[in-house]
Structure formats: C-alpha cells, structure tokens
Amino acid sequence: MIFVRCWSYVGRVFTNGQDLSIGAGCDYLAIVEHELLHALGFNHEQSRYDRDDYVQIVFANIITGKEHNFRKVTIDESTTHGVPYDYMSVMHYGKDAFSNRNGSTIITLDPKFQDLIGQRLEMSPSDAQELNLLYSCNASIAFKFYCGFSNGTMCRMSRCSRGENDWEVVTQVHGGPSSDHTNLPSGSGDNGQKAGYFIHASTASGQEGDSIQLETEVVKPNRACNVQCLQFYYFHSGNESDELNIWIREFQDEWDKTGTLRLMAQITGNALLFKKKTELLFYLFHVCFVTTFISPFAYYNIQNCAM
C-alpha cells in the first residue's frame, strides 16, 4: 500500500471475516474507499493486465524490495468487466509511488495525465461502474446526475443568457485547457486520445453585468437523510472580477412548483481545474450556475453525487 498504516487483503481471503487497516493517517474518504475496494476484490489500477497500453512502469526508479507493488495481474486471474483503463481511479498509484528519488515510477503514455494519476479525492465514476458490474448491481446510487459532456450535448440542462454570448459544447478553444481530465484514451491513434468535450463561454466582447445561466433538471435524493453533494471541475482564465455563482432551488414536496432559491457558493478569480464540493440538504432540487461578466474562458464538468 502507499500509506504506511493503510492496508487490506485483496478479495475474500478468510471465510469468517478479515481485517483491514484504516488507522492513523488513513482516515480520509478516498483512502477508506481505496482499502474497502481492495477487500471487495479490486487490485490497483496500474496492475491491470492491459496496463502497458496506458502506463510505463520504471522499475529502475522503484525502491529495492518494493517491486512487488507493481506486479501486473494476468488476464487469467482478473477481469476489467470491459471498463476502460481509468487514470482517475482511486485505485491508481501516483507518479512517484515507491520512488527511490531517481525519478517517477509510473509514466503515463498520454502525458496529459501524468500529474493527475493517484488522486485521493474519492471513487471515480468508472470505479463505481466496475463495482456494480462485479457484484451484478443494476445501477450506482452514488450519482444522481452526472454530465461529462462526452456525447457532445449538455445533458438536458437548460441555458439562457443576458447578453450576446451563450454556452457551447466544444473539444478545444484558444487559450486552453490543453486536455480534458475526464477523457480516456481509446486505444487508437495519438496514444489513443479521443477529443474530450466541455462547455465553454466567451465574453471577450461582452459587457460588465452580462450573465450566462446553466440549469439542471430537478433531482430527488434517494436516501432518507436527504443529503447530497455537488461537485464540478472548473477552468477559468480572465478578469479576476468575474464571478461564478452556484444557486440551489429547494422544493418542499412534489406539489411545490416554485421552490426557494438560495446562493450556495461564489467563486471569483482565476482557477485551474478547481473542484468544488458542498453538502446539500433538501427534498427536491435543481442546480443553477450563473456566471456574471464571464471571462474569455470557462470550463465545467458537472457531477452530482450522494454522500
């Protein structure tokens, strides 16, 4: 394991239960998820039998005696259930895992992901998908609404603007970003890299006070506690006075048609792949993103997940 006091057996080893360690230094959501996924049968992502199509393991840079942590699991003893290799998996090592300080131990064949592997925020959508497939679950309860714009659409979100500009789904724009962090190689072409979609709005010719609005559908949490979190990825370059406002409209019940609108958060200044996560308490809701005097570039991947 990467973390000294954090460990777990892979899969069911003992019939009457087994230990895993989430002691001091391990009490973080992603680390607990990491160790529990081991217990549920997950190996590390970079141990997949197809890993050589996505990463290079530099054994010369691994601490002597730690090479076993990079063992490749064969196709005869594992399955991926058809889920593509996931650089953003919570089960993936970081680039310098077990390094002897002579350099990185893992090199991503797609260089855009070199500094992204090893995230310890939480399970990725692909992690949840593979877990569902492994245990024959019909769907994940983790995500009530997810939009990565991967199909070139806005996921049935409505939009409006005060000014001449509007949102558009694109694969690239002048000024970046140079890559979409949610995009994975397809196995063909330029390291298998497909074009990643994101939404973009430009007001290079806009006026102060102009705004562009994006609004989700109404969503109802499944759990009795009615706790929901909202997270999204945001890329912004431009005037530091620009604002991104996140509004929530809360409905008391199914007969409440107007709801109560409240401002949840406001983001100002420049941010690169900023990740915002907040807890929400409500019965029914929809999310509204309003950008005032938006900068020449803004980028979003929106994900709504249960806690």
UniProtKB/TrEMBL annotation:
E.C. number(s) listed in UniProt: 3.4.24.-
PROSITE patterns, sorted: ASTACIN, MAM_2
Organism superkingdom: Eukaryota
Domain MAM: 145-270
Listed transmembrane segments: 280-302
Presence of keyword Transmembrane helix: yes
Domain Peptidase M12A: residue ranges: 1-138
Enzyme class: hydrolase
Note describing how the cofactor binds: Binds 1 zinc ion per subunit.
Positions with a binding annotation for Zn(2+): H34, H38, H44
Keywords attached to this entry: Hydrolase, Membrane, Metal-binding, Metalloprotease, Protease, Transmembrane, Transmembrane helix, Zinc
InterPro entries linked to this entry: Astacin-like_dom (IPR034035), ConA-like_dom_sf (IPR013320), MAM_dom (IPR000998), MetalloPept_cat_dom_sf (IPR024079), Peptidase_M12A (IPR001506), Peptidase_Metallo (IPR006026)
PANTHER family referenced in this protein's UniProt entry, alphabetically: DISCOIDIN, CUB, EGF, LAMININ , AND ZINC METALLOPROTEASE DOMAIN CONTAINING, MEPRIN A SUBUNIT
Protein name stated in the entry: Metalloendopeptidase
Native species: Xenoophorus captivus
Lineage, opening ranks: Eukaryota, Metazoa, Chordata, Craniata, Vertebrata
